[in-house]
């Protein structure tokens, strides 16, 4: 029987959950190896017992201020570091620490977001960026009263800060149409899981804008989220006499991959091919890439403000939609 005066251990969690120690370890470190029902049971027991992995417990013992966690695919997409800047600016005057949790990209993730995180006492609130939270985990977070704000993802329970991906897709398509392009390509990022992602919303808006123009031919393709993969996909997309005269890419690195492919094929950009990206990061500015600018810092700042309000007791769920702007540079022009 667990002694309430002592910190819970992994052995206590295993005993109360009726599983082995290795199963508890897998839930915390490799959740994709554990059945959803077992994972939920183990995490519920961990929360009830107040179990914390050793390193987290030591860190909390030193804690003198509040703490918010920011979960995002930081190592996959540098743009999330710009959102983090917004979070930091919004919390600068507050007595809070910020803990970063690097999460695998939702496009390639095999395990559910936050599936392995024991939450009781670890953080006072979470900002989750770039991926939805599965329903069972949302229920778990809500039942523990943990304030959560999502950025670039949807939720039926928590406040959300999104950009208008559908509207941005329409704006990008309208821009290429106004330039006179009628054979258009679209390069998306391939995604492993089935959810209403930014990529799908953005492409949906792009398609909707083109739908009113029956003379337009749209060719779509996908690539993993690297410049090299985008180059390979673009080489195939641009190989043929009826190739697109313009290509829109889901984000800037993919667009730069298209630019590299065009150079290999001897196509002049923008004379033979217009290329339009999305995000407007430093690489886009350096390369003179026309793109759609996301309000990265603003989205982080708004999310942090909503989270601080929730930590302070606010209960109203808020939905915030931010606009994007088109930035015209050297890679787009009317077709020849």
UniProtKB/TrEMBL annotation:
Pfam families cross-referenced by the UniProt entry: LacI, Peripla_BP_3
Top-level taxon of origin: Bacteria
Residue span(s) of domain HTH lacI-type: 8-62
Gene3D superfamilies: 3.40.50.2300, lambda repressor-like DNA-binding domains (1.10.260.40)
InterPro entries cross-referenced by the UniProt entry: HTH_LacI (IPR000843), LacI/GalR-like_sensor (IPR046335), Lambda_DNA-bd_dom_sf (IPR010982), Peripla_BP_I (IPR028082)
SUPFAM superfamilies, A to Z: lambda repressor-like DNA-binding domains (SSF47413), Periplasmic binding protein-like I (SSF53822)
Entry keyword annotation includes DNA-binding: yes
Name of this chain's protein: Transcriptional regulator, LacI family
Family matches, as SMART domains: HTH_LACI
Gene Ontology terms for molecular function: DNA-binding transcription factor activity; transcription cis-regulatory region binding
Keywords for this protein: DNA-binding, Transcription, Transcription regulation
């Amino acid at each position: 029987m667990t002694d309430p005066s002592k910190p819970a251990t992994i052995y206590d969690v295993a005993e109360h959950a009726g599983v082995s120690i290795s199963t508890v370890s897998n839930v915390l470190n490799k959740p994709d190896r554990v059945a959803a029902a077992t994972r939920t049971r183990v995490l519920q027991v961990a929360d009830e017992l107040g179990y914390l992995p050793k390193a987290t417990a030591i860190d909390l013992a030193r804690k003198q201020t509040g703490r918010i966690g920011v979960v995002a695919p930081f190592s996959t997409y540098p743009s999330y570091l710009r959102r983090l800047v917004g979070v930091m600016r919004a919390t600068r005057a507050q007595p809070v620490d910020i803990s970063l949790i690097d999460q695998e990209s939702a496009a390639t993730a095999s395990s559910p977001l936050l599936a392995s995180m024991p939450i009781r006492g670890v953080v006072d609130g979470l900002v989750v960026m770039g991926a939805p939270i599965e329903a069972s985990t949302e229920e778990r977070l809500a039942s523990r009263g943990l304030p959560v704000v999502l950025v670039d993802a949807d939720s039926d329970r928590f406040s959300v800060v999104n950009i208008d991906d559908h509207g941005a897709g329409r704006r990008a398509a309208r821009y290429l149409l106004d330039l006179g392009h009628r054979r258009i390509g679209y390069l998306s990022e391939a995604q492993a899981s089935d959810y209403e992602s930014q990529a799908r919303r953005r492409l949906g808006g792009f398609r909707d804008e083109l739908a009113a123009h029956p003379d337009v031919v749209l060719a779509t393709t996908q690539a993993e989220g690297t410049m090299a993969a985008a180059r390979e996909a673009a080489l195939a997309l641009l190989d043929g006499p009826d190739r697109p005269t313009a290509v829109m890419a889901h984000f800037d690195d993919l667009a730069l991959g298209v630019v590299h492919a065009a150079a290999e094929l001897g196509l002049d950009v923008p004379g033979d091919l217009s290329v339009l990206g999305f995000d407007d990061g430093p690489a886009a500015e350096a390369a003179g890439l026309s793109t759609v600018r996301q309000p990265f810092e603003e989205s982080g700042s708004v999310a942090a403000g909503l989270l601080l309000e929730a930590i302070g007791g606010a209960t109203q769920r808020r939905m915030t939609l931010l606009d994007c702007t088109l930035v015209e540079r050297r890679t787009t022009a009317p077709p020849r």
